[in-house]
Write a structure and sequence with these properties.
The complex is a heterodimer of chains A (112) and B (121).
Chain A lengths: L8 E4 L5 E6 L12 E5 L6 E4 L13 E6 L2 E6 L8 E8 L7 E3 L3 E5 L1
Parallel strand pairs in A: 1-9
Antiparallel strand pairs in A: 2-6, 3-4, 3-7, 5-6, 7-8, 7-9
Chain B lengths: L2 E5 L2 E3 L5 E8 L8 E6 L5 E7 L6 E3 L7 E6 L4 E6 L8 E8 L8 E4 L3 E5 L2
Parallel strand pairs in B: 2-11
Antiparallel strand pairs in B: 1-3, 3-8, 4-5, 4-9, 5-6, 7-8, 9-10, 9-11
Classes of the chains: A mainly beta (112), B mainly beta (121).
């Protein structure tokens, strides 16, 4: 069972805007820890899409943006494209666990 | 070019052990923390373990605590994962990943392609 909760799936037509939520608790996101997002295209390793809540690594299109508020975070994708069809994961830090890193369960984005 | 290449996966019987390796190149290995993340077939990402740059700090998921041991050899640019008492629930693709910082943990900015572990009799 994932510590961070994501919707299992979202979908949208090309050109539309979709958002993916990531809900945590007072021990992870709510404790002020940063949220990071990864994109995993089919058959490939994950790659970081958004780091530190809102920052995009070089090479990531501006269509992707992140936000964080309270115990939740969101990933927004505008101008949806077919190549955005992938699994998306949020990740944060939980200092109350014996480990530290927590992932969301992942969200499958389908481009209609 | 930054590269992480995992090896050591394979088919192993329940209860047996396996050691995964990850060799890195293209960056100063001992400047960064490292992680193992796994993905069971058709499932999401699960963080397994992480280790700080100097090996002084390690962390484990509850599901592997006491069975798996992470280690690194900074002189050889290698990360390891010793896996003992394996069960079918450990069947997964295991990724080696580099942390952005020295400490366990922030986020993973570089990933390998993974090595597959299948636990079955």
């Amino acid at each position: 069972q994932s510590v961070l909760t994501q919707p299992p799936s979202v979908s949208g037509a090309p050109g539309q805007r979709v958002t993916i939520s990531c809900t945590g608790s007072s021990s992870d996101i709510g404790a002020g820890h940063d949220v990071h997002w990864y994109q995993q295209l089919p058959g490939t390793a994950p790659k970081v899409l958004i780091y530190a809540n809102t920052h995009r690594p070089s090479g990531v299109p501006g269509r992707f943006s992140g936000s964080k508020s309270g115990t939740s975070a969101s990933l927004a994708i505008t101008g949806l494209q077919a190549e955005d069809e992938a699994d998306y994961y949020c990740q944060s830090f939980d200092s109350t666990l014996s480990g530290y890193v927590v992932f969301g369960g992942g969200t499958k984005l389908t481009v209609l | 070019e930054v590269q992480l290449v995992e090896s050591g996966g394979g088919l192993v019987q329940p209860g047996r052990s396996l050691r995964l390796s990850c060799v890195v190149s293209g960056f100063t290995f001992d400047d960064y923390a490292m992680h193992w993340v796994r993905q069971a077939p058709g499932k999401g990402l699960e963080w397994v373990s992480g280790i700080s740059w100097n090996s002084e700090d390690t962390g484990y998921a509850d599901s592997v605590q006491g069975r798996f041991t992470i280690s690194r050899d900074n002189a050889k640019n290698f990360l390891y994962l010793q896996m003992n008492s394996l069960s079918d629930e450990d069947t997964a693709l295991y990724y080696c990943a580099k942390d952005k910082t020295q400490w366990v943990a922030y986020y993973m900015d570089v990933w390998g392609k993974g090595t597959t572990v299948i636990v079955s009799s």
